[in-house]
Write a structure and sequence with these properties.
The protein is an all-alpha fold and 192 residues long. It contains nine helices and no strands.
């Protein structure tokens, strides 16, 4: 290796974000908790409009690519796939999150921030919930210990999750709700 290459490599190490390894461990740990392998994580990123490769994800997780140097759009997609609220993400990583401050300027990804006026906001009908999930809400949502299941945000959240084995019975949907209710806090459906 030439002296110039050694100097360049030394400069790159010196300029690296010292939080890169910490951020990488956070991403990897949460990804594994969610049961996502790297290709599945990459597929979820695509659903948030961001293309990354499994190799890039590997570099982020090892800390050789700094999450702090990724674009805001990529960081926000990573946050969303991992299921962190903006506040949790900001507290865990120390990285800027445009939605972390409710008193701040308009959300970077809101219709207003994208230039839509009130009359130009795209509207779409939500995808109907599976019958078994609707039945789970009817059967269990009225019980005090499962009352959150009756909130519109929970059935929508459970339906949008990408399952290896999608529940097909009300009891299956209830089991999924029980599994996630202490781990996640889905946003209100009107706020999405």
């Amino acid at each position: 290796m030439t002296t110039a290459k050694v100097a360049t490599a030394a400069r790159a190490v010196k300029e690296a974000d010292p939080r890169a390894k910490q951020h990488g461990q956070l991403v990897q740990q949460r990804r594994l908790e969610l049961g996502l392998n790297r290709p599945a994580f990459v597929a979820q990123m695509e659903k948030h409009g961001q293309h990354i490769t499994p190799d890039y994800l590997n570099k982020l997780e090892r800390g050789t690519a700094a999450l702090s140097r990724a674009s805001l759009e990529v960081r926000e997609a990573v946050r969303a796939v991992l299921g962190y609220s903006p506040e949790e993400w900001s507290a865990q990583t120390g990285l800027f999150t445009p939605t972390a401050s409710p008193t701040g300027p308009a959300r970077a990804f809101s219709a207003a921030a994208r230039g839509y006026g009130n009359s130009r906001v795209p509207t779409s009908q939500p995808e109907p919930l599976p019958e078994a999930l609707q039945e789970a809400v009817r059967l269990y949502g009225g019980q005090p210990e499962f009352a959150a299941l009756a909130e519109p945000r929970w059935p929508r959240y459970l339906h949008r999750l990408h399952h290896k084995h999608r529940p097909t019975t009300p009891d299956g949907w209830l089991a999924l709700f029980i599994r996630y209710r202490h781990e996640f806090d889905p946003p209100d459906t009107g706020a999405e």
